[in-house]
């Protein structure tokens, strides 16, 4: 029950401390520590501006005491506090791995924040005791899981490349056929290859859906959505609508991200760097607007392509990004000075956020590599345990036969 109606929740509140009560364990946290992790549950409290938004994050709250109540495991909350203090998450050994996953998911903490001392053991425990269906899921999902998964990954990559090559060859006139009405038809061999690729993609996405541990999350994963979009075999008779879906075949190249550590790390980097990307786009937009106006003023009388300010936006974009196509070039001294400033400003503007994004990419790449190493080591350990058990059984059987032989007359 809400103890007091929300009366004030303003910027000055963020400068104070708030009280967090988890299962009777009461701790004080500064808003500055929480603001470092705005995507977590406690970090999102700072941006709440209504009772409804607050109660979506906590079980109860008292505005006068600035205290928020959570009905969760108080022992695990100590690990959450350590995370906000150090930025590193440690595994609570008393919890099973699935309960630990539920706890960090509730608090909005990504497993990427696991410290290196706990990451290997966490992923190892996460993979223990898995059923055959989940092993098949990992075989299809993780190219480094086992030898069969590597073979499956190789076949999948080959089919994707064949599909992309087929799409590109189909655009060449010498490989196009026309019927009596003049409609363009697929060449017979290309048509069969396309149907084979579609059949493989259908099998792949159907198998992943059937073996998925969580079907609801399956449809939220971007790579799975790309797989679904890649399957368009039933759209052959929809007239011009099929052309749109044929164009979407180019997204099949993104399926390669499933088999590439670098591409997956890049996707995670962009997902967690939307603020930096937004700042980069904002800087570029401001720079393009300013320098386009200056170039228009300096070049509008010269008839060299700077006829309007919107027409100058293209020149400003290629100049600030240091691409420089050269299709539109200033000829006056003032225009050239504006172009020089635009290029130099673009170098500075792009360099600042790119450094932050690169550091995040390095972080996620190391985490992804550690995860793949944990999976491989777990598979190797399982194989060694199986071999050890088999060897023990053979020794026991031999000992039994020896004993029987000695006991016989």
Describe this structure as you would to a colleague.
The chain is of the alpha+beta class and 409 residues long. It folds into 3 domains: 11-128, Potassium Channel Kv1.1, Chain A (2-Layer Sandwich), CATH 3.30.710.10; 134-257, Four Helix Bundle (Hemerythrin (Met), subunit A) (Up-down Bundle); 272-384, Helix Hairpins (Orthogonal Bundle), CATH 1.10.287.70. Helices cover 62% and strands 6% of the residues. Strands 2-1-4-3 form a 4-stranded mixed sheet. Helix 14 (274-299) packs antiparallel against helix 16. The chain is flat, with a radius of gyration of 30 Å. 19% of the residues are buried. Mean pLDDT is 76; it is low at 1-15, 233-242 and 392-409.
List the helices and strands and how they pair.
Layout: E1 17-22, E2 25-30, H1 31-35, H2 41-45, H3 51-55, E3 60-62, E4 67-70, H4 74-86, H5 97-106, H6 116-127, H7 132-141, H8 147-170, E5 176-178, E6 184-186, H9 188-211, H10 215-218, H11 222-230, H12 241-247, H13 261-272, H14 274-299, H15 309-320, H16 333-407
Parallel strand pairs: 1-4
Antiparallel strand pairs: 1-2, 3-4, 5-6
Helix pairs in contact: 6-16, 7-8, 7-9, 8-9, 9-11, 13-16, 14-15, 14-16
